[in-house]
# Entry
Amino acid sequence: MKVSSFLQLAAFGIKTVLFHKKDPILGTVIVTDRCNLSCRHCSVNNITGVIHPYTQIKSEMQQLYGMGVRILFFCGGETFMWKDSGKTIRDLVIEAKEMGFLIVNVVTNGTHPVDLPEADLILLSLDGDKERHNIIRGDTYDTIMNNIEHATSDNICFYMAVNQINKDTIESVCRKAHELNNVRAVSFNFHTPYPDTAELQLSKEEKQTCCNTISRMMDEGMPIFNLKSAFPYLINNTFPTPCWQCVVIENGVLSTCGRCISVPGLCEKCGYFFVAEYTLLFRGNIKIILEMLRTYLKYV
# Structure
């Protein structure tokens, strides 16, 4: 991370903590909900199948920047399927950088070529070892590994949603992240139980077991992009929601925190590690602040 970017983000954090501000700093643009997969745990793919037009996406980027957002994510559906007016996801990343966003990340299922050195991070979904990943996402594991091998930058971060199917494969994913040259780290979430996928959610005891494994992997030096200090809050779902500093825009509709905020009762079962980490950060939790500084400076 550039020193100038770090100072701007630090200044935002200090003002937010001291003055209890609710201004956003992290924004996500949903470029499409079209996806080439139908994953067992996903509730937001292929609902409309619409590829949102370039002019709309650019306008949404400008809207978020005007609101003060400086960390931008492009999400889907599958982001690498987005094409419009001769533009691809690479063009959006480059334009976001030129617009002034400090950090620009892309979320993908990894089944398309992921050679995108312009992005700060490519958050690539890997949901376990080969067997469990393929149960969840179809026969895609080998394709993903091939695409990682042929990337020209080490900006890939595994993004694993831990659920009833893959909860015993955390160590395998950590070691795979450590093994591959183009993978910088792994970031975990717990499955957030939308009504049609509620059977995949973890119990409190299972979350504790998973956090114990992640902690052990951290102690062994595995590259993990999460904050250990947030684990007790995630296990017990005691972190405050929603996260006012995060917003999502999809087809012109702006939501605080995430798309799931509109589902009754889902916030209380939230499994997103970053939501816990950010809400605790911006409420001045000292342990979280110090650990986030170390982690972000290392991996971003």
Remarks:
- The longest helix spans residues 3-19.
- The beta strands are 26-30, 71-75, 83-84, 87-88, 103-108, 121-125, 156-162, 183-190, 246-250, 253-256.
- The chain has one domain: 23-299.
- Residues 23-299 form a domain with the TIM Barrel fold (CATH 3.20.20.70).
